[in-house]
Every structure is written in C-alpha cells, then in structure tokens.
Amino acid sequence: MNKIIKTVGLTLIGAVCFSGGLYYGVERSEQLLDRVMDEYVVISDKVDAFEKVADPKSIRSYVKELNKILDDTKVLHKIIETGQMGDEALSEFFSSYDKKIDNVNDRILELNTEHMELVFKFKEQVTRLTEETDDNLELIQELQKNIQEQTDYVNKLNVELGQSITQLEEDMSKIKSSTYWLRDKKIWSK
Fold first, then answer.
1. Which of 111, 115, 121, 154 is geometrically suited to a Cys-Cys bond with 54, CB 3.0 to 4.6 A?
2. Contact (Cβ atoms closer than 8 angstroms) between residue 43 and residue 122
3. Nearest to 160 by CA among 38, 50, 56, 11
4. Comparing 87 with 129, which gets the higher pLDDT?
C-alpha cells in the first residue's frame, strides 16, 4: 500500500515538475520571439527614415539646381561676350561656381554611395531577421507539438493510474469481504 502511495506521489511530483518545465520553455520562447520582433520593428523604422532622406525626388532637386547654375553660367558667358562685365570679376565668379558645382557633385556622389551601402545593409539585415524569425516560428511550432504530445501522454497516464487505483480498491474490498481475510484476521488476533 505504501509503495502504491509513493508511486502515485512520485508520479504526481514528476508530472508537476514536467508541467513547470514546459511552462518555462514556452515563456522563454515567447520572450525570444518578442525580442526578435522588437529588433525587426527598429530596423524597419530605420529603413523607412533612410528612404525619406535618400528619396529620388531630393536627388532630382539637386540636379535641377545644378541645371539652374549651368543656365546662369551660360547667361553670364553671353554677358561676358557682349562686354558688359569685366574679365576679372567673371573669372572669380566662374571659379567660385565651379568649386561649388564640384562640391555639390562630390557630395551627391558620396550620398549616393552611402545610400547604396545602407540599402544593401538593410536588405541583408531584413533577410537575416526574416530567416531567424522563420526558424524561431518553426521551433515554437515544434515545441507546441511536443507540449501537446506530453500533455496527452500525461493525461493518458492519469486515466490509467485512476483506473488502476479503482481496480485496486475493488480488489481490496473483495479480499476484505472474503472468508480468507476473516480467517487470517482471527489467526492474527489470537
């Protein structure tokens, strides 16, 4: 009788420990998924902000401004040919505009290079995060399947244990009500 009680007790303790472990594992995987999703949101926000800064419309406006500068330069050239301005003043003007144009061109090239590098990095990060998220979702699905299998197994064991205890109680009742039990009881009481 004590062995049965110990066995039942150990089984219940094992079931409680197993359930606690499963609960901890599910909580841990949910925390990991939350952390990955938070990182994904941050990267997505950064990509959106970068797209606003590196918008092709902005680059077009720079090119448009350069074209205006070139048109102004053409107009000034015509003025020089007609003799309305002095040669020295125009030389200074053109050299300052050439420097400005060169600086703008250099800056546009730098921005374009940075833009392309950032787009490449963000695409790599999004791809990596997508793969990690897919892997984590597969792991979660496997864990959920394992948890369900273990739960079904524990439930089956509980039903079988309950049936065994009921059968044992019925057998004990039969033994106690039998004549053999009564005769041995008389022998022991003498």
1. 115
2. yes
3. 11
4. 129
